[in-house]
Amino acid sequence: MNAFLYVDFLRCTACFACETACRTAHGSGSRIHLAFADGLPVPLMCRQCENSPCAAVCPEQALAWDTTHGVVLLDERCTRCGLCAMACPFGVLSVHPLECPNVVKCDLCRDRRAEGKRPACVLTCPTEAITDEAQRPLTRRRLTGMVPSVLASPFSQNLSGSKARRQRNEAFREKDPR
Amino acid sequence: MNAATPVRTVCPYCAVGCHLDLLVENGRVAGLEYAVDSPVNGGRLCAKGHAALEMLNHPDRLQHPLQRSATGWVPVSWDRALDTAAERIGKILAAHGPDALAFLSTAKGSNEENYLVQKLARVLGTHNVDHCARLCHASTLTGLAPMLGMGAATNPLSDLGRSDCLFFVGSNLAENHPVAFRWVQEAKDRGARILVADPRRTPTAWIADLHLPLKPGTDLALLAAMLHVIFQEGLCDDAFIAQRTRGVEALRASVKDTDPFWAARLTGVPARDIVRAARLYAKAPRASLIYCMGVTQHVLGTETVRACADLALVTGNVGREGSGLFPVRGQDNVQGACDMGALSGLLPGYRPVSDPNARIFFERAWGLPAGTLGAVPGLTVTEMEQAAGDRVRGLIAIGENPVVTSPDSRKTQENLKRLDFLLVVDLFITETAELAHLVLPAAAWAEKSGSRTNTDRRVQWSPKAVHPPGEARPDWKILTDLAHRLGLGSFFPYTCPEDVLEEIRRVVPAYGGMSPRRLATAAEGIAWPCPEENHPGTPVLHEHRFATEDGLARLYPVVFREVPELPDADFPYCLTTGRVTLHYNSGAMTRRSPSLGSRSPYLFVEIHPEDAAREGIRHGERVRVVTRRGTMEARAHVTGSIGPGVVFAPFHFPETNALTQNVLDPAAKIPEFKTAACRLEKMRGTGP
Amino acid sequence: MKETPTDRRLVINVDQCIGCFACAASCPEKRIAFQDQDGLRRFTAPGFCAAKCDACRKVCPVDAVALEPVDPDEARPDPLEITWVLPLARCRRCGEPFTTEKIRRRLSRQLAAALGSPDFSFDWIPLCPRCRRDDEAHRVRAATRTVPDPLP
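Output (structure tokens, whole complex):
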């Protein structure tokens, strides 16, 4: 189990099942957001950055990263000030204390995982576009020579965004010839 | 440890027939879990599947029988309601005879329920029983059945994943059968070519290798041209044609002159792309043709279906794994409703009412005196809507919403108001129920057990998970009770849906082996035909023999004609209607759904940027769309995913069908939903 | 009206306040409220609080909340309700207000200090979350290198 979700957005058909499943699983706002680029969908959720802006601005150190769980909210420390939500470069974290008591951020369905179940969006996606296994998006596209983009965060790998970007690109430069 | 018991049910929305496990706690559905081990969907569930739960405890759910009175709806007891219904039906029978009654069965009901609706109608003495397949795949029944012997999908949806070329004609599988689309993605990853013929660049077309954005209603021209290329370049499967079909010479002659340039002028698709599509489809080792409303919902629907089947047959793409013809059904049980004969011209098992042997068989099976069943087909849905208040005095509408779904719907609404008796059985006060004299509260899918048949011909049992709210009852019980009140109790000796299924097995040979016990334990249902108890079912049809009398498939010539109403000076655009992923058919369920309705709450119309600029319409503005039948207001979505000259509106809102035309395919009686001439009007006061 | 000895006067240092949600979210009786309207975030709070808790004061990230004891013999002073206002920052792309100007400036400073490096740009800070998502969607799609699979 990797500490973030992979999205093969070329498989996404903008059906909104992921947003619906996420809301159902958590009983509050969806932690996954269908964004659009020229009418084409890209599902986005917390990237579980190793060195995240949200953690950097939290006045209570209520956001911490670990390998298994990604960026974890330490609820007892959180004051719902909302600064983290404004610091997220991808706009995938939200805090609206008057409407919802929870901080709406993907936690990789921690409660479900504790019961041995996989994240709701992973299971529900009709076209298997979201996965929690690293291999699927890569092997899947090898045959057609198309390279998917992985949603690893540029805030991974300890401060160096370019290092993360280089690693990400190299991983996908390899593809099997047809 | 979960205290809730998971109950595996079949989703009530579309014909993919996904499983979802309902978590039942203290007699209520507390949530759902993904049916990860189901071979049907592997746990996958689209947004509508999730939203299905919202129907179960919805505050608008009908809980008591309601009678119309001068002061509004009055709740009455079931006894009183059933007595009233029997009395009103009896009056109409006495005064006008049984053909003054009409029954609209429901494609959301179970096989058992559909069987009972048509039985009730026929025992009462009329073949006026039909359902919404008339509006969607009636042309598949009239077009495909004579060609292959059966008008149903030839392969399971999973076979799409084993295909080398997938040709979509008028099908937006990605949006409307989302879970089935993963097979298409699998095929693409294996290198399959995806061809999509659709006026819009739909999500299905996003992964197309070739998108053929033809003008609505010109599919016949496209298919004729493709056949022309295939014959001319010798790409047909001569051995298959010789051994397994007849009629190729007439077909070949009919497409002698329908060359790609001719088709390019009519369709707007470049000739080169038509040629490429034909070559890709014909040369693929295993090719599948998937078609849906873009093909069927036309005056020429029957003929367009035939052209699709011609294409599949001459290239030998029927009857093998990975090669098939897929009329993709819509409703969760529209396939079953057809199988059960809830159709005005067909008895259960697709036996025509005009066949004397079929009539004798059912008269004997049901204990009716010889000669009771008429030889003339009854009224179809579209004909019932036209005849309501006139020849038809009483209409029993079960889980159907003709005020929203019928073409030229304002006329239908006026007609329904003139009925002596309108009985509606439904979950909510729908637009149609508003006009009823008596409304009976129905149980929803998870509140009753029964079998339903998906588009793979797969019959699945869905058990009762919770009780219906209030006094709502399952359709099978309502029908049985009504039959008893009408003095027909001896024909309806059923105490549970399983009883009905046992009778179905005896009279519908394709369902012969579908015992309740077998269905309840079959992880992915059983695909018909399944004539005996130990028959495994038939996922792939026509492998050795077609279901025609001589075992050969029949090819039909292709003759192109224009759609009935072309754009002109007054109405310069073509209005085409269709579906969106977050809504379902008449919207009776989805528009009430908090999770779906909130994301897609309003009626919109897609307009090409050039057309929008010409009309001075901006994205997000309210505009008026006008046809010869009516006017509607919608929000403009200016998008390049539709071609110039064409506008698209979803039909999930009551306004849309006020604009469509009630012109029918003469054989199938399916309306020309997909084209209408319209104009756009910028509304005053909506900005510069 | 006799005040109880636990009455405290709520005093907000409006210069310090950055306009976050902490105090409003912390009040167990939901007596601190805010509303975003016409480009301003307007807070309202009771002028006095008889409760025993110190939540609003403790959670404020910039120590802008003070609870001063009130002399029980003092005549009931005003104000019974206090309000303060902060200007909202508008999204540079769509123009929708999405946070206060002060929060936006604070974020720029903090992130530059904590994560600053030549590899990062923070040009997303003046964008609202929705535009940040759409921008990321564009970036992600553009970053996909696809090898075209030409048709024969």
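Residues 91-144 of chain C form one domain.
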